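quick q for whoever's on today - can somebody do inverse folding on this one?? i tried earlier but teh output was garbage lol. tokens:
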């Protein structure tokens, strides 16, 4: 991700405050966690920004994700930028515990940054990001879009981009786009789809015959044990918990995930969370939100989980199965199972982190366990 140096926060604050007709002190005082009674104003801001693309129960989503003044509720905190009784912008901030070898840090990941459309161009989004970084210390920005990419590039220090990979399940649409003759497209689709099914049978099902995979409705102590056995010193670990995974994966009011557990000899050796994602009016795909693998059974657990998930997606008509990650060793395992790299311009990672041993430990590593559950992509 290319970067362009941001102005110092003091200068940004002066420019933004001048555009808003307030003082830098008033601007700073107005950035704070949202109160319970400010939920309607945040909903209205989001209606203005999202517009016609808002097709879900946004109030249920916000109450699931954010605290809004209620301690212990929500995954994250919704910060609002206010001036008087007006909400000018918002940003979500979720706490994460990061571990890099012997070094650990309480960090935060930002999401859902929005500014009132009539304030586009005044620099408010840049200032909100700068202020959050100044107040919270280690802050991550994971993923971007055409509107946020420039803001992130001017505010954060870039990290290596994550990479997206896809495994084809059904070839009907793919062939129809490339072959003008209907009968030829149908024949080519049947041949390619049949070949891919045979590939999965030989590389996934037969290789994982000693592993049992089943859907999980509850994540308990056996998952906690797996999480401990899955950690690796070579990568930056995002510390997970069964409680946090349950809330995020199973209780999302917009797009709850399917969670699959792999067992070998009675012990849970792998977890995969997958959700359906719409890619067109009549087309959908499956997105892997998280993968947790026992380091002693990594290959067989991954194959067993993919065998079951791919079969479920294939029967349901999904076009492909996708995963986005930054872990070269795990990516190589996916590649051997016919996951192909799909270049994406917005799988960015960036951060603001104080200098010190933790930052050095992170930069010395070439892998993260961070996946799409740690982004706002799990909105649906």
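ok took a stab at it. sequence:
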């Amino acid at each position: 991700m290319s970067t362009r140096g941001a102005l110092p926060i003091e200068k940004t604050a002066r420019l933004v405050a001048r555009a808003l007709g307030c003082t830098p002190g008033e601007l700073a005082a107005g950035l704070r966690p949202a109160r319970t009674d400010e939920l309607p104003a945040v909903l209205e801001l989001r209606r203005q920004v999202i517009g016609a693309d808002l097709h879900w129960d946004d109030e249920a989503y916000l109450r699931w994700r954010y605290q809004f003044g209620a301690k212990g509720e929500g995954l994250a905190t919704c910060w609002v930028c206010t001036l008087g009784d007006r909400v000018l912008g918002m940003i979500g901030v979720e706490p994460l515990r990061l571990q890099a070898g012997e070094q650990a840090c309480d960090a935060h990941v930002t999401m859902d940054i929005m500014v009132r459309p009539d304030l586009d161009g005044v620099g408010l989004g840049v200032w909100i990001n700068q202020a959050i970084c100044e107040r919270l210390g280690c802050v991550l920005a994971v993923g971007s879009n055409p509107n946020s990419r420039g803001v992130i590039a001017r505010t954060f220090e870039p990290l290596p981009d994550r990479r997206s990979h896809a495994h084809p399940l059904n070839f009907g649409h793919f062939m129809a786009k490339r072959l003008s003759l209907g009968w030829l497209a149908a024949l080519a689709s049947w041949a390619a789809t049949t070949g891919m099914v045979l590939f999965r049978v030989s590389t996934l099902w037969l290789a994982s015959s000693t592993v049992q995979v089943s859907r999980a409705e509850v994540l308990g102590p056996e998952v906690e044990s797996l999480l401990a056995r899955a950690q690796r010193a070579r990568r930056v670990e995002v510390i997970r918990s069964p409680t946090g995974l349950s809330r995020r994966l199973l209780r999302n009011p917009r797009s709850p995930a399917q969670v699959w557990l792999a067992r070998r000899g009675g012990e849970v050796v792998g977890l995969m969370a997958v959700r359906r994602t719409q890619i067109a009016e009549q087309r959908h795909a499956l997105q892997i939100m998280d993968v947790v693998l026992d380091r002693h059974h990594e290959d067989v657990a991954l194959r067993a989980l993919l065998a079951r998930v791919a079969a479920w997606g294939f029967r349901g008509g999904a076009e492909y199965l996708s995963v986005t990650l930054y872990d070269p060793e795990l990516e190589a395992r996916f590649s051997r199972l016919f996951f192909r790299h799909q270049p994406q311009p917005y799988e960015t990672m960036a951060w603001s982190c104080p200098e010190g041993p933790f930052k050095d430990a992170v930069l010395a590593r070439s892998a993260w366990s961070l996946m799409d559950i740690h982004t706002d992509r799990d909105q649906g």
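fwiw The CA atoms of residues 259 and 273 lie 4 Å apart. also DSSP finds 13 helices and 15 strands in the chain. so keep that in mind when u check it
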